[in-house]
Amino acid sequence: MFRFANYAIFLLLVSADYQAVGKNNSHEQNVRGGANVVLWKRPPDISSEDLFYGPGGKDHQPKEPFVFIEEDMSGSNPKFELRDANGILWRVKLGQEAKPETVATRLVRSMGYFADEVYFLPQLRVSGLKTLSRGQDLISSGGVVRDASLKRKDRAHNKIGEWSWKENPFVGTQELNGLRVIMALVNNWDLKTSNNAVYQVGDEQRYLVKDLGGTFGRTGSSFTRTKSDIEGYAHSKFIKHISGKGVDFYLASRPFFLTAVYWPYYQDRAEMEGIVQKVPLPHVEWISYYLTQLLRTQLEAAFRSAGYSSQEVAAFVSALQRRISELHTIREGGPNYSAK
User: How many other CB atoms are there within 10 angstroms of residue 266's CB atom?
Assistant: First the structure.
């Protein structure tokens, strides 16, 4: 049985997590009538995609020296903003999400979806860096920061709203369902609305998942889920069930049943699990066609770009390729094609 103190701490954790989830029930969308809404664009040549530098390419890398601007208190991970030598603003994320988000942006972008420009730096020096309320253990004297991801804040990309997985202009399309498969592929257990954004870029309203930090680990409750965890990712189940209604993928997100008393949070987390269920077979096959074009060397480059060791790169890539092979088996009508 839970002792009262432990149970109280557990509920506090749940309550804190819900503050980021429960407030988004309205699924507000600032989509203007007649706008050119875009979720996906056909990738020209997947096997030649640069998965090391990612969506921004080599030319958009952050340039030293870096100057501290302010701390960012949003979300659960320590963050702050800085300006680089070219006057570009970057949001710096520390902690466990820095590495997996770097990889996930590259994988998502290679499939034709939009993703933020993210770069991982094992070490950077930031002048004027003040004491932070979070993540101070990752900062050394002289403003030296370790293991950080830098997300470019592009003035040309104006965020005009958020979108929900259930309410958006692309519901039922192969493009949205392909993105659902990719979220299952990387074990993204944090599929809340606040992690999705609509950017106004020229005459386009671009839909994307802007926070991909809760990936490449084990899905589960607040106590069991992980990020950037090769053991958790490699040993997680992927395809749960296949039937005439489509493919159900594994994603555990709802909390321990005792927290059902906090019903709105429990309900939101339960709905997240449904995001990767009943994905139509033709749409799974469609995204599988693109995923199977990725070369192992490309996937290795994506993980190397996030500062993983050679052993970690090999293990993550092997686990990811096993999952892609499972999707390929479905597309080829192999043994997993029939319902179990």
Answer: 18
